[in-house]
Specification:
Translation Initiation Factor IF3, four-stranded mixed sheet, 2 helices
Length: 104
């Protein structure tokens, strides 16, 4: 399955638009990470545990987007976007969305 941020898949022609598809996940920090990242916050630098947490969340959201597109028998998803937002104290949602299409 092609997943692209562009309007079309390079070298392909979109035959049919199947509608919006999405995948999302909500992740929460944990106490162990909070302690180690608080120390890093004092000394400065990347908060690697949180970077990893969000990277895993993005991957899961994209996997769920693909599952949603496959349920429509799509060949590709175009105009893919990712967004994140805080939804609770210590929790963050990552959502991936785009347009499922069939290719010629």
């Amino acid at each position: 399955m092609e997943v692209v941020t562009t309007d079309t898949v390079p070298g392909e022609t979109v035959a049919e638009s199947l509608g919006v598809v999405r995948g999302n996940t909500v992740r929460a920090r944990n106490v162990g990470r909070d302690i180690t990242q608080s120390i890093r916050n004092i000394t400065g630098g990347e908060l690697k545990a949180y970077s990893e947490l969000l990277s895993d969340a993005r991957d899961e959201a994209l996997d769920r987007l693909v599952e949603d597109a496959q349920s429509l028998d799509a060949d590709a998803v175009v105009n893919v976007r990712l967004e994140s937002s805080a939804i609770a104290n210590g929790g963050s949602e990552v959502i991936a969305y785009g347009t499922a299409v069939r290719l010629e």
